[in-house]
Amino acid sequence: MIESNRRVNASVPRTAKTEVHDAIKQRILNAVYLPHEFIREARVAQELKVSRTPVREAFRELISEGWLEAIPHQGARVSAWTERDAREVFEIRLVLEPMAVALACSKMDRVRLDHLKYLASQMEILTEKVETHAEFRNSISALNHEFHKELIAGSDNYRLMTTLENIVRSSVIRRNFTNYKPEHLQRSMRHHREILDAIESRNGGWAESIMRSHLLAAYDLHLNVSDLENRHQHAEDT
Description:
- The chain is mainly α.
- The protein folds into two domains: 14-78, Orthogonal Bundle (Arc Repressor Mutant, subunit A); 83-237, Up-down Bundle (Four Helix Bundle (Hemerythrin (Met), subunit A)), CATH 1.20.120.
- It contains ten helices and three strands, in the order ααβααββαααααα.
- Strand 2 and strand 3 (75-78) form a beta hairpin.
- Helix 2 (16-29) packs across helix 4 (52-65), helix 5 (83-107) runs parallel beside helix 9 (182-200) and helix 6 (110-129) runs antiparallel to helix 9.
- The longest helix is centred in the C-terminal third of the chain and has 34 residues, at 204-237.
């Protein structure tokens, strides 16, 4: 199933709008464009060496996805990831993503499971080297996004997949692994492996339980990091 999907996707030409959309999103993730920063069509067109038309179209799509926000009479600026955003996203994920992996236990095919094992292996390799190669964190983040996306796709439930698509994308990608200590990353990798073991055993209850633990651990880390950042900001302000 995965290989056939890849062949179909490879045959579909990427439009200028798609290229610009992905480039802007990556710059937001890499902190080239910062939260609350206004970005101008002319600037992006010049940087990417394209006309302003695909930039304008990409802006509209990024606004609809929540990456940018339109400010009347001022333009588009990068959306901030607030505490409320995180809480709402995790509340939804804690209900729907364990459901998705439970369904995947009875519906996932061997090709997709093997691909997930490959993604898990790649993340584990990078995790072992991350203390001396901090730049690997971005690669782990991208692989982690694909891993969760494939897990959800394994549920073979189209409505569940589409409901979770933007939610997981905004959560997994925006909150990258910059603040994860090596022990946090290693715990996350163990969760991934145990979820795959549960799926291979066709044990929905097991998979559901580990996914919930995985998400709760990620949310707890997010809360601790946010609290520390707030304390530092308060100290600077006073």
